[in-house]
Write a structure and sequence with these properties.
38% of the residues lie in helices and 20% in strands. With 643 residues, the protein is of the alpha+beta class. The protein has 4 domains: 239 residues, Heat Shock Protein 90; 131 residues, 2-Layer Sandwich (Ribosomal Protein S5, domain 2); 92 residues, 3-Layer(aba) Sandwich (Rossmann fold), CATH 3.40.50.11260; 131 residues, Four Helix Bundle (Hemerythrin (Met), subunit A) (Up-down Bundle). Strands 1-6-5-4-7-3-2-8-9 form a 9-stranded mixed beta sheet. A 5-stranded mixed beta sheet has the order 10-11-14-12-13, with helices on both faces. A 5-stranded mixed beta sheet has the order 15-17-16-19-18. Helix 2 crosses helix 6, helix 11 packs antiparallel against helix 12 and helix 18 crosses helix 19. The radius of gyration is 32 Å and the shape is elongated. The termini are far apart. Bound molecules: adenosine-5'-triphosphate. Adenosine-5'-triphosphate (ATP) binds next to helix 3 and helix 4.
């Protein structure tokens, strides 16, 4: 190792770390006890990693094969130490892991902070507080760590001291450390003295870290008659249960234990929304304990975001973030899968190919969908409330499943919730089953409209006839909704039909008299339709008399097999080529503006263009040439006022 690396060096924190430290202290103070949970959680992960790496290289255990976490305190020095004999950190790793935040989406996360302590505390919880939570209770933190496999002389000492509540820099230097692993010493702030007690620390461990797989040991205390107080002995005692929670039977695990374990695996601050725990036997034997979080993580939409499943094989930790274990549309699920059959040396590459993994994934997917169904259809009001919460946080992600998971499509479709014309509010509360239950006598289709915003959907002219007849229409305004309807042709035998595509066929809901009227109008208006078509030229595929409108003069519809207008716009915005297709302009023969057009000579082309453009605007489209549109409107207004 070079001289410079060995000498103490002062390095600056990444700007975001400084910000996080500051926020942590100010926003999380009322949750100060979590620091112990976070440090123990990291220590446990470090032990897991060592156990896994040692599968290939047993020498990493050195002469210390029993993994454990040790917690101690020194009342005089006012310190608490959390030590593990896990994988440890090299100097470079300490700099990278403790001096920077490498998570994707970090900048976006900081952009969301508001300065309101309560809200920010919540956000920080979602971001993951981790190691830095030590600074809630300590104003100086010293980390001494040696990576397994490195010689005793190549350990690193990392230290950061806060001046007031600010810390801008830390020091690293090379030191000796006999045992591998990490020892973190917290120099407590004023007012934290209550933490310097065996009783207090033990109760925190039992409360937050009971489920940790490795033993958490502390020195035993004994009553000393001479000193008339409890004194520490040299004897160790294990404070936690120290067994893998998921291997225990469901009946033996309390709600609180499940919740505490969730916070560890998910690095979440909040309690989970729901969980499913089962042992699957048969061709493949595995245990899964899967949680649905309450809130979306800050990086839900980041393609490189971590996935939340930890894979174990026969209780040996294999990997975090095993993305193959959950389909992408369930990427918010957190938890553990422990397989009895996979080889211990399984790698990400092997997972990609493994049929066993496919089976486990499909089993886990079913479990999560069943869990969600249980909430969605639950008798208890609390379940429904939970499902509404789930939908608010993850509904958009679940929608992706309709196109992604063919085998479970109908099930996923059953879990979807939409806004509709029934309530005419943006709240997504209507299931397809609700919709079908409310269908009109003789109605055999599920109608929907897609638009870029809820208001554009709600006010779409295409809804006029539906509103008049009291037929419910789903109002879809998420981008992903186009993907949903593009992949979901029917539900429960009922076709999903866009109200803005193809010829409107209301089947038996159609009024015969109206139909006749329209046919008559089509004959009567044939000449006008032809003239308009000729005038609009390339902009339209056809011009027809409509059945859809009651109030508006015109609307645009896509031909049956063409890409819908909203989807075409989304594709265009995403830089993708939508197949070029022209819309059909439908005109309302009852409307005075249309009636008038029959007799228009001089300004016919302007009228036709304005009708087209306003139909385009009404359904959320953008004008190619807004200036000309405005000019035409002005000209027509002047013409009407006799100028
Ligand atoms: N006891 C430890 N032994 C070895 N490495 C550690 C230890 N504690 C922390 N680290 C390293 O520092 C990194 C950062 O820890 P930190 O707790 O801040 O975040 P995290 O655990 O990765 O994620 P989260 O913020 O979600 O908790 C860890 O990923 C790990 O690589």
């Amino acid at each position: 190792m070079s001289e410079t690396a060995a000498a103490a060096q002062t390095l600056n924190f990444q700007a975001e770390v400084k910000q996080l430290l500051h926020l942590m202290i100010h926003s999380l103070y009322s949750n100060r006890e979590i620091f112990l949970r976070e440090l123990v959680s990291n220590a446990s992960d470090a032990c897991d990693k060592l156990r896994f790496e040692a599968l290939d290289d047993g020498a990493l255990y050195e002469d210390d094969p029993d993994l454990r976490i040790r917690i101690g305190f020194d009342a005089e020095a006012r310190t608490i130490t959390v030590a593990d004999n896990g994988i440890g950190m090299s100097r470079d790793e300490a700099i990278a892991h403790l001096g920077t935040i490498a998570k994707s989406g970090t900048r976006e996360f900081f952009g969301q902070l508001t300065g309101d302590q309560k809200k920010d505390a919540h956000l920080i919880g979602q971001f993951g507080v981790g190691f830095y939570s030590a600074f809630i209770v300590a104003d100086k933190v010293t980390v001494v760590s040696r990576r397994a496999g490195l010689p005793a002389g190549e350990a690193v000492r990392w230290e950061c001291s806060m001046a007031g509540d600010e810390a801008g820099a830390y020091t690293v230097e090379q030191v000796e450390k006999a045992g591998r692993g990490t020892e973190i010493t917290l120099h407590l702030r004023e007012g934290q003295e209550d933490l310097l007690s065996s009783w207090k620390l033990k109760s925190l461990i039992r409360k937050y870290s009971d489920h940790i797989v490795q033993p958490i040991v502390m020195k035993k205390e004994e009553w000393n008659d001479e000193e008339k107080k409890q004194v520490l002995t040299d004897e160790d005692e294990t404070v936690n249960q120290a067994n893998a929670l998921w291997t225990r039977s469901r009946n033996d695990i309390s709600e609180d234990e499940y919740k505490a374990f969730y916070k560890h695996v998910a690095h979440d601050f909040e309690e989970p929304l729901a969980w499913t725990h089962s042992r699957v036997e048969g061709r493949h034997e595995y245990t899964n304990l899967l949680y649905v979080p309450k809130n979306a993580p800050f990086d839900l939409w980041d393609r490189n975001a971590r996935h939340g499943i930890k894979l174990y094989v026969k209780r040996v930790f294999i990997m975090d973030d095993a993305e193959k274990l959950m389909p992408t549309y369930l990427r918010f699920v957190r938890g553990v899968v422990d397989s009895a059959d996979l080889p211990l040396n399984v790698s990400r590459e092997i997972l990609q190919e493994s049929k066993d993994i496919d089976t486990i994934r499909s089993g886990c997917t079913k479990k999560v969908l069943a869990l969600l169904e249980g909430l969605a259809n639950g008798e208890e009001a609390a379940d429904k409330e939970k499902y509404a919460g789930f939908w608010g946080a993850f509904g958009k992600v679940l929608k992706e499943g309709v196109g992604e998971d063919f085998a479970n499509r109908e099930k996923i479709a059953g879990l979807l919730r939409f806004a509709s014309t029934k309530a005419d509010t943006p709240d997504e509360v209507v299931s397809l089953a609700d919709y079908i239950g409310r269908m009109k006598e003789g109605q055999d289709k599920i109608y929907y409209v897609t638009a870029e915003s809820f208001n554009a959907a709600r006010n779409s002219p295409h809804l006029e006839i539906f509103r008049k007849k009291g037929i419910e229409v789903l109002l879809l305004s998420d981008r992903v909704d186009e993907w949903v309807v593009g992949n979901l042709a029917e539900f429960d035998g009922k076709a999903l039909v866009s109200v803005a595509k193809g010829g409107l066929d209301l089947g038996v809901l159609e009024d015969e008299a109206e139909k006749k009227e329209a046919e008559k109008a089509a004959d009567e208006y044939k000449e006008l339709l032809d003239r308009m078509k000729a005038s609009l030229g390339e902009r339209v595929k056809d011009v027809k008399v409509t059945l859809r409108l009651t109030d508006s003069p015109a609307c645009l519809v896509a031909d049956e097999h063409d890409v819908g207008m909203n989807l075409a716009r989304i594709l265009k915005a995403a830089g993708q080529d939508a197949p070029a297709s022209r819309p059909i302009l439908e005109i309302n023969p009852q409307h005075p503006a249309v009636l008038r057009l029959k007799y228009e000579e001089k300004h016919f082309d302007d009228w036709a263009a304005v009708l087209f453009d306003q139909a385009l605007l009404a359904e959320g489209g953008k004008l190619d040439d807004p200036a000309t549109f405005v000019k035409r409107i002005n000209q027509l207004m002047m013409a009407m006022s006799g100028n």
